[in-house]
Each structure stands twice: as structure tokens, then as C-alpha cells.
Amino acid sequence: MEFSQTSWSILIFLFIFILFLFYLIRVLINLLRKRVLCDCEICQTYISSSWVSQFPNLCDWYTHLLSKSPTQTIHLHVLENIITANPTNVEYMLKTKFENFPKGKPFSMILGDLLGRGIFNVDGDLWKFQRKMANLELGRNSIRSYAFEVIHHEIQHRLIPLLDSFLGKEQHHGTLDLEDVFKRFSFDCICKFSFGLDPKCLEISLPLSKFSSSFDLASNLSAKRALHISPIIWKIKKILNMGSEKKLKKAIRNINVLAKEMIRQKRKLGIHSPEHKDLLSKFMVTINDETYLRDIVISFILAGRDTVASALTSFFWHMAKNPHVQTFILNEADKILGGNQDCITSCDKLRDLHYLQASVHESMRLLPGIQFDSKFCLQDDVLPDGVFVKKGTRVTYHPYAMGRMEKIWGQDCLKFKPERWLTENGQFSQENPFKYPVFQAGLRVCLGKEMAIIQLKTVAISLLRRFRIELVEEEGSSSSSPLFLPGLTATFSGGLPVLVQERWAKDE
């Protein structure tokens, strides 16, 4: 007897439903055995109620639970996940016992289709090799100069003209989604720097880029794999090529076509040409495998695009909330840079903008681009705060929560206060990276940290000196914290709609 397509669909649905039901029964049995989900009393109280009604974001709920824990660590048994905001635990995981807390296979599987064997998705020798190469290349003055050249060109010839166009000739101001603008800006920059490719996403017409949209979709769908109750659900959908997994497969196929074509074109033109200053050309000298090259560069695009866009969005959200901070930044810029708005032509002049540096770090303290990061324990271990970690357990450190801990930052931890980063004579002072793991820390500390800070400071001062940017908030929206969408990086729900005004027009 032949089965129709409808019959096969019904059988497949029943199969998935039975698997889901079986998993749900296992979870319920586990709950009955343990009776509680968390070790600490506060978790027992709050986990049974809906966090949605009390906290704007899931990360705010975790922050609340962690702040009530004596050790700043909680254990969600049903998820086999230990979450910590304790700096000593972070140092233990990222430095002291680094080898026992790798990324792990569960994480690698989730992002494997998008990142492949790229540096952010591997452990061991593959990670060591790529990190050594990246450290060598990113440390070169020529690479740093090229990165600044790309950033400066994108600001002067695209970002500023785009914001100028939203001022309008008849109207005094225009409305703009600044988060979308920063995503376009950072995507153009990182593609030029990594690939030698110019997507032109930030042209005044705000064109749609197939590469950018495919990258967005692939990132979001890959992140949503982690939201499934069990990985078996997305794995079955992948095998059957249905739903979100079908969309993910198509998006990654688009990315692969463009990436591999770019690699072939570079080989054809000659990678040793002095015109080829991008990161891909540097890696191609050593690596011949096209798929491996694709994985490496895609990983750099993911890191350099989304995190920078998130940090810029958060920074200007804070600036709009704290106009007095803008005044301090502008006064400092007038003293150091003078009155010429176009004088930032090198990295050197940015180093003396200490208050701006402090403001950028303070913004990322409260709203980090990566809100949490997880590792998987290889062998049974005990964290410095006494929490036992069983082999195979996921251990998550939470930069978002850490930035809001009174035990770490004091009673004014929720206040936007750049001064906490300054010494008595007004010099910027870096905090302990395990207290502030926004760029990770230890052996996996972000190699592009300094370049990212330069990019953030250059954009910040370039826009603040020309424009007054004000939020367009919906009635009843929360002013204390933005709402976030689920994803690999912090993305504002609804974007960041703003009014763009000429600074001089209102100051006169």
C-alpha cells in the first residue's frame, strides 16, 4: 500500500510528538525526585512563579536570583546548569582550570552549521592554532592601521551622511532605528576588514544585502536551537529538513556561496598583492582548505559585527538617558581634540579621551553584548565557592548579572556612573577582567578587544559632536532597562528608534 504525502506527514508528526512526550515524562519524573529546581531558597520561591510578570527580561530574573544567593551561584538541576556571578568562579573556569571547562560538544553542535570549525566553536588544538594565528595578525600595526582606516572611511562617507539625511530640509529632525544603522555599519566594517568585501549596507538608500540578511537569519535560528527543551527536537527537524531548520539550511547555503566565491576570487588575483590588507588574505597564506577558511572568517564576522552593533546601541541608549554624561564627554573632546569635528584621523588622539573610555566601559558593564557564556565540565570539580560540579554539567558565568551585583560594584551598581572607572586624577583605570568579563578573560580573552574599543570610541565621539540623539519611547515602556530579543548577542526588542537633531541647532 502506498502512502500519500499527507500520511507521511502525519506519521512524522506523531513520531516527533511521542519523542517530545517521552522527554517531558522524564523531566517530570526528575522534578518529582528532586522536588526543587535550585539549591538556594530564593530559587524555590521564584521559579514556581512566572518571571515574565516580575522582570522585563530572563537575564533580569537570573540577576535577581544570583543577587539573593549567598555565593552568587545557583544550580538549576532540571537544566543541569550551574549559573554564577562570582568573580572567583569565573577566574577558576577561564584561567585556573581552563582545560576542565571547554566550550564542549553541546555548544559546538548548536552553532556547528554556521561556524563550523571556527575559533569560537572549537576547543583543543584547533582553537590553539587559530588563536595563535589571529593573535599574530591582529597584533600587527599594519592590520590595526587598516582597521582604523576602514572604520574612519565608513564613518565619514556613510554613517555621518546617513544621519545628516535624516535631519530633513524642512523638518528639524527625522526618525531612525539606530540599532539597524549600527548593524549595517559594523557589518560593512567587519566584511571589509575580514573579507576585503564591501556589502554597502550603509548606503543612504539602506539597501538590503543578501549576505547580511542571510547572516542575520542564520545567527538567530542557530541561537534558537538552544531554546528547545531537548536538542533532539531541532536535530529531528534538521534531518527532515522542515521548519526553522529548513530556513537555516538555506541561509547558510547563501553565506557559503558568497564566502567561497570570495576566497576563489582572492586566489585568482593573488593573495600576496599589497592591496590585499584584509584578514582573509593573511590567513590564506597559511591555510589552503576553503571550508576551513570560510569557518574562520565567518566566526570573525559574527564576533566583530553583532557585538560591536550591540555595544553601540547600548551606549547611545545610555547617552540619551544621561545627557549630563554627554556634556562631560564633549567638554573633554573640546580640550583634547579642539573644535575641528573631523580631526580624528588616527588612534593616538583617542587614547587621551579617558572619560569617553570610562563611559564606553560603563555602558558595557550594565548592558554587555554577550549577556552570558557557558562552558561544560569535563571531569567532576568543585568551584571556589564550594559548589560541586558534576562531569558533563553546563556552567554559565553571567556578565549581565555581574554588572548588577552590589557585592561586586557597590550599592550604586545600577547607576550609570563613568566616574567609577577613573582615578583621582581623571585617568581611566581598567578593572579586573574576572570581575568584568565582558570580553571574556583568561586564555579566551577577546583578541579584538582593543580594536573594538577604538571602533566604539571613534563612532561615539564622531556622532556626539555632530548630533543630538533622543529616544522615541512608546507610551508605558520601561525606562530602567530595555527589552531584549533571544539571540547570540543582546538585541533590543523593537530596535532603537531615535530622533536625530543637529547639535548646534539646539545649543545656539
TrEMBL record:
CDD domains: CYP86A. One of its GO terms (molecular function) is heme binding. Keywords: Heme, Iron, Membrane, Metal-binding, Oxidoreductase, Transmembrane, Transmembrane helix. Pfam families: p450. The chain crosses the membrane at residues 6-25. Coiled coil: none annotated. Its cofactor is heme. This is Oxygenase. PANTHER family: CYTOCHROME P450 (PTHR24296). Belongs to the cytochrome P450 family. Heme binds at residue 446.
